[in-house]
Design a protein that fits this description.
The structure is a homodimer.
Chain A lengths: L13 H12 L4 E2 H11 L5 H10 L4 E5 L5 E5 L6 E5 L5 E4 L5 H11 L2 E12 L5
Parallel strand pairs in A: 4-6
Antiparallel strand pairs in A: 1-3, 2-3, 4-5
Chain A binds a DNA duplex through helix 3.
DNA sequence: GATGCAATTGCAACCCGTTTGCATCTAATT
DNA sequence: AATTAGATGCAAACGGGTTGCAATTGCATC
C-alpha cells in the first residue's frame, strides 16, 4: 500500500515514465498520437491505447483540452497555466504565459454566483509568418 | 446566378430554414443531435447528415465550438458574441454577455505579433444550485 | 406552367479519435 | 520465488462526424 493516499498505488512502468517525460519536454500541449509517436521512439511496442489509459490514470497531473479539430491535447498541470495562440494557416502554437483571465475570474465568479474551477481559452488567428 | 457573391446561391429549403429557426430560438449553443431532434419535430424525415451539411453550408453565420466532451456546439453569430459558464455537475450552461477578453485582445495581439481572428473561452465550475 | 440543372436531401457506408474486453505481462510486496 | 493487482498489447467496438450516390427540390429560364 502507498504511504500517500493521493499518489495512490499506481505502478511505475517504462511506458508511464516515458509518457511523463515526453510531456515534461513538450513546449506545447500534445495530441495522443504525438505522445504515442514520441514514446514509440524509445518503446517500439507501445500501443496508442496505453497512451489513452495513462492520460486517464494521470488525470490529476494532466490537463486535457479538446480543440476545434476534434482532437484532445494533453499537458502537465503546471503552477502557472498557459493559453495558446493557434495559427489557422500553419497550425503553429504559441504559448502565452500570462493568463489574461486571472484578474477577471473573481468578478465573473461573483457576478454569476458561479464557483470557477477551470477554464479553457484558445485564441485563433494568423501568426507573424503567415499574415 | 446570384446578385450578391457573398450570399452565394444557396437554396432555401424547409430543412435549412427550420435549422436556422431552431438556432435563433436557442438560448445556448446546441449540439448537432439537439438541432436534429428539434428539426425532426417538424420534419420527421430529416437525417443528421443534413444537419452537419448545413452547419458547413451556413458556416458564415454560425460559430462552432468543440467542448471537452468531444461534441461540437453550434450557435448563430451575433453582433455581441458570448461565452459560457458550464456547470460540471448539472451541465447547466450560463451565458456571459460581456466578453472579458475584448479589452485584452489588442495588447495580446501586439505583444505576440499575432492577428487575432477568433477565440474560444469556456469556463467550468459549479453553479449556484450545485455548490 | 413546363424544362433544365445545380444544390440539397435521405440513406447507408465509412472515417478516425477514443474506448473497452480480454489474455498476458510486470511492478511491487511478502 | 510466489503472489497479485495494476498495466500493457492487441483487436474489436464505439460514437461523433463525413461522404458517395441516387433521388428530390428550389429556382432561374423559357
Amino acid at each position: 500500500m502507498s504511504k500517500n493516499q493521493n499518489v495512490s498505488d499506481y505502478k511505475s512502468t517504462k511506458q508511464r515514465n516515458k509518457i511523463i517525460q515526453v510531456l515534461q519536454d513538450a513546449k506545447r500541449p500534445l495530441t495522443a498520437e504525438e505522445i504515442y509517436l514520441l514514446v514509440k521512439d524509445e518503446l517500439p511496442s507501445v500501443v496508442i491505447s496505453t497512451i489513452y489509459r495513462n492520460m486517464e490514470a494521470l488525470k490529476n497531473i494532466i490537463v486535457k483540452t479538446v480543440y476545434n479539430d476534434g482532437k484532445a491535447r494533453y499537458a502537465l498541470t503546471k503552477e502557472k497555466h498557459t493559453h495558446n495562440l493557434i495559427c489557422l494557416k500553419c497550425t503553429k502554437i504559441i504559448a502565452i504565459e500570462k493568463c489574461p483571465l486571472e484578474a477577471l475570474e473573481k468578478n465573473l465568479s461573483e457576478q454569476n454566483s458561479f464557483e470557477i474551477l477551470e477554464h479553457k481559452l484558445e485564441i485563433y488567428g494568423h501568426c507573424k509568418d503567415c499574415r
